[in-house]
Design a protein that fits this description.
It is built from 11 helices and 12 strands. By secondary structure, it is α/β, with parallel strands linked by helices. The strands form 3 sheets. It has a 7-stranded parallel sheet. Strands 3-4-7 form a 3-stranded mixed sheet. It has a two-stranded parallel sheet with strand order 2-5.
Length: about 325
Amino acid sequence: MLTTVVGSYPSLPEEPSSLSQKLSSFFGTYDDYKPAIEAAVRDQIKVGIDIISDGQVRAGMVEIFARAIPGMTVEGNTPKVLGKIKPSTTSISAEDLKYALKFSEGISREYSSNQGTIEDGVKGVKGIITGPSTIIFSSLIEGFYKNKDEAIIDLAHALKREAEFLEEAGAVYVQIDEPFLSTGLPDIKTAKKAVKIITEDLKVPTAMHVCGNVSDVFEKLLTFPVDIIDCEFAGIPGNIDVLEVAANKGLTKGKKIGFGCIDTKKKEVEDPKKVSELIKRGVKCVGAENIIVDPDCGMRMLPKEAAFSKLKSMTEAVKWLS
């Protein structure tokens, strides 16, 4: 079974400390987020994560896209739609992915760009995009659009270009984060159409992460045009009952399941034995070959020590089952 992370990791930007860093800062070329990316990558590889992230260290999952996409902005802490949404001419996060990939290759030659497949057990860095439905439902619409659905579709076209940038940068697969789909607020047909716009014609595999209680939408999520459906099963135990029902109906066929088995809302570190028991339930539903093990959600809000220890418990649990 492959292991991964949902995305964010509690690594903080660092002020320049070495002479070379201070010189870079003086000339305006020092990036205080690069040490945070390095720390996130180092910790993930140290505990044995197969498909890592760059740690999503720069900003909130909505704000980082709203600031960069034409037609959107962030005022104070509020993302807003001000005009027609258009694709950005430059990537929002591909440079961080490339930096994470280069740094990971320096630690272990097992990590590489998108060569091979997840079926081969390839190790690498995933690209992560916040989904259009989640971004729009987290934003105020102050201009151009009469309804959210129109904005979601235009944003999907903009995010399609970002997905291409991430693929070109070497992402082993591209993940779309759509937590709002578990709330029932977005129109599921519009959300599905938007995800299809993003994933269509990509050569790398694609995933969609939906945290929260998915009991009302899980079977619909399984029809989305992605290879992996990722949900939380530790913090919301009822989700595994939903998975069992869907699997018994044959609805999970052709999909891999991102199996959240670490509760990211709690600081307490799980016992690997209990984690392994939960993973066994997932394996019983869909088979070990169709499980990708990860935490329930991003880990940004956890203390770094807790995040590291939780990932370690998760990878230890997987080793016991291998």
